[in-house]
């Protein structure tokens, strides 16, 4: 059963990041969220007074929409605080399009902020202060001291290697490609040269994944302004249309994931492609949530860019790097550009910029269709959005 | 139902599955549930079958034999490496655990393992495994 047809109903009219990297002391997640929100609205030629739909998620803040709305001084008539980890913002884009199509709101603001890096740097300051957290749901994993999230992804990588002969060198190709893209992005956090040998020689954290198979921990926020397609055409920037969206999740804990080599992205992408009436062969650039190198391999398979088990070979030989046949994570991804904990919003921002043709040195020629894919939890929540220029409509 | 003193009632009614699990574990069993309706093996403990939605679940005691589905070795600074594994128990459920008595990096996917209950640990009793020598599962 397919959902409501939203093809071309809504468009992204503005995008922005906040300051990224390590933003300095005395700044909070809400500050970065608001900085990104203000800039995204300015990008669209709109203001907070235009916002009547609010979509946001901030790690550790169960009532994030209330925090953000109060801070921004917006009084939304439609609010969505869906929190499914890093894929939340791709889900928000889907939900915003549904709300706009139903007339529940007109101008949606999707927003995120995090000071994950600064928080860890200053962790000593808060010692001894107990957070007022509700009792945890019992864990059937904690006793075995997995280092989460990396161990969850490591278990998937080990299984993929066992079943399909994927190698650590192939995983390293993902990190190297991301770094090569980051070298073209002045806002990327890490821009030093990186080789497959560097990745293979780096310290193993949770086998088979090494430090350089893991994403960064940075600060950062991002925002998108989404509005009805007809209105977006009259705003400051070329509209980036939502052509299709799909979501799926099958588990929360990694020990409950039915097959560690197949993610729910198979289902979320099928829904998105059906709505968009396109297939993987029509996609010009791919922005996906690369929390770990194995993610890129799994998602390229599950999003239909290669057959199951062939992801390791697919990412090799520079195919997804600058100059390769499939540009993946052109901003440098969570591995080299920015990763404040819930990266999904940046897949949408970069996809929109590529379609608008404003990605500077890393801009790909003639981008009409871009795929953005978010991941949340332990390969748990999957959300796919397919975006297009006016030509793609 | 309200107030303390009702724990036994809740357990008997199958409404405090985590408590029931830890009590059975403390007695040395590797507990799991089985659905009376569809016969699915259910773990972690629940009040409802995730395969069919039925609410009648029976407690069972696993024979403790299983196969390593995946493994990852962690290398904490200044401490011994240890494996975190996912084990598929022969009764049809999967759990996270660890394998003891073998160098961490020698635990392979497909290895047959046998469960025991380790009474120690900061979180109380938990299930751990040892390699079952001379037996290997050859499934892909
Ligand atoms: Zn059942």
TrEMBL record, chain A:
CDD domains in the record, alphabetically?
SCP-x_thiolase
Q: Which GO terms describe its molecular function?
A: acyltransferase activity, transferring groups other than amino-acyl groups
Highest taxon above the source species? Bacteria
Please tell me whether the keyword Ribonucleoprotein is annotated for this protein. no
Keyword terms: Transferase
Identify the InterPro entries for this entry.
Answer: Thiolase, Thiolase-like, Thiolase_C_2
Instruction: Give residue ranges for domain Thiolase C-terminal.
Output: 246-388
- PANTHER family, per the entry: ACETYL-COA C-ACETYLTRANSFERASE, NON-SPECIFIC LIPID-TRANSFER PROTEIN-LIKE 2
How is this protein named in the record?
Acetyl-CoA acetyltransferase
Q: Which organism is it from?
A: Thermocatellispora tengchongensis
TrEMBL record, chain B:
TM helices/strands, residue ranges: none
Kindly name one Pfam family recorded for this protein. Answer: OB_ChsH2_C
Q: Which residues form the ChsH2 rubredoxin-like zinc ribbon domain?
A: 23-54
Ranges for the ChsH2 C-terminal OB-fold domain? 59-117
Family matches, as InterPro entries: ChsH2_C, ChsH2_Znr, NA-bd_OB-fold, Thioester_dehydratase-like
Q: What is this protein called?
A: DNA-binding protein
What species is given as this protein's source? Thermocatellispora tengchongensis
